[in-house]
Amino acid sequence: MSRVLFTHSYFYKLDSKQWKFKQPYPPLGSLLVAAVIREAGFDVNFFDVALRDAPTEIEGELKKYNPDYLVIYDDGFNYLTKMCLTAMREAAFTMAKKAKSHGACVIVCGSDSSDQYEKYLSNGIDFVVRGEGEETLRELLISLDKKENHQEIKGIAFRSFNETIVTPSRLVLRDLDELPMPAWDLIDLDPYQKIWKSHHGYFSLNIATTRGCPFKCNWCAKPIYGNRYNSRSPEHVVNEIEFLLKRFQPDHFWMCDDIFGLKPGWVKRFSELVEERNLKFKYKIQSRVDLLLEENTIEALAKSGIDTVWVGAESGSQKILDAMDKGTTVKQIKEATELLHQHKIKVAFFLQFGYSGETKQDIDATLKMVLDLLPDEIGISVSYPLPGTKFYENVKSQLKEKQNWVDSDDLAMMYPANFSPAYYKLLHRYMHSRYRIKRGWEQLKKKKIKGRALASMIYHAPLSILQGWKLNQLQHAG
Description:
By secondary structure, the chain is of the alpha/beta class. The chain has a domain at 3-158: Cobalamin-binding domain (Rossmann fold), CATH 3.40.50.280. It has helices spanning 16-21, 28-39, 58-65, 79-82, 86-101, 111-115, 117-121, 134-145, 190-200, 234-248, 266-276, 289-292, 297-303, 318-323, 330-342, 360-373, 390-395, 421-445, 451-477, and strands at 3-7, 43-46, 69-73, 105-109, 127-129, 156-160, 163-166, 204-207, 210-211, 230-231, 252-255, 282-287, 306-314, 346-353, 377-382. A 7-stranded mixed sheet has the order 2-1-3-4-5-6-7, sandwiched between helices. A 6-stranded parallel sheet has the order 8-11-12-13-14-15. The chain has a two-stranded antiparallel ribbon with strand order 9-10. The chain starts with a strand and ends with a helix.
């Protein structure tokens, strides 16, 4: 069989905000598909770019391995790839050109290429795998290797005689337990471990237990796994955790699902298995506040070692939550946060500003919610219209020429909101300042404040006053 070189296009060093956090995760989805293609009989190698400096570094691997195919397969489990950042798109184009100069056929799969396949085909890519890629890529490689007709393969886009051919979409996989273990042997995890240990004192690895999300938040793009929700069995997941604990000794896992443990009884069974096998680890998940309030869910999470739950709070305004088709309430956010804290579980809020129709009163409601509930972490963004979403369709006619962020710290407004882009950029910093002050003050009252938190509080106090003044000026100027 032919040689297939796998890589991906997310470079942490090209995203300064994420590189500053020093929380790199290996490309889980890319390693999984490499295992699938290896099982199909191909000679497989992997070039991990996550911690590298530049896409041109692939040149050496192309010369050494001399692949027949370069597959740029982005990790669909990593929310950073779902942002469709142009810095990573350009990196993919650079690697594709290098591979073409070495005579390799180039195949790409990812959120951005699924949405923008014409851009990729125009930059020398031979095939774009649209959506979930394991089965499609396996069929495509076998077909190309045998020089058979590939035009009937579902889920691909390519050009034939200068015409773009887009075949029908493929149904997503249902039995995820049939997939092999990711090809962990193909990459070196030592650099990841060293970064985590030196900056955070522990080592975290990523695991995916599900695919897709059945909820319909109208700003959420799902170009890979769609609105279907399929889950691995608790037994299958715990087997993988046990393997990773023995092989790499992580202290912590990021369950990188859009929604963790949605299937009835899943979390309870998972907790039982962890206890039966006496496995010790901490982990973080993403969930919804309405799901967390279902009977015994939080208790089971606490029993199995949960450390942090990230929830899509999004806004403290019920009007905005309803406009987003979020399907949750401000009251549920409060109840879930309080219940998680009662069980000594950290809670973190995803927040976004600038959604269509959001007013100053809505922004103030979000700030009040954060300061009242005081989550353990916050992640703030502005509303970002991505193709394939109802939100994108609603604002498409208002979009400016720039329609993608360069990196995750870009936070540019892509359409006219109620306030200026400068206002939202400053609002992001103001929210963090107010949050840091309140957290420091609460710790000070309990006499539990540490040096770093006290320094942060002292730093942000005068800064927030200046930021508030500037926000007022920008508000009225707008």
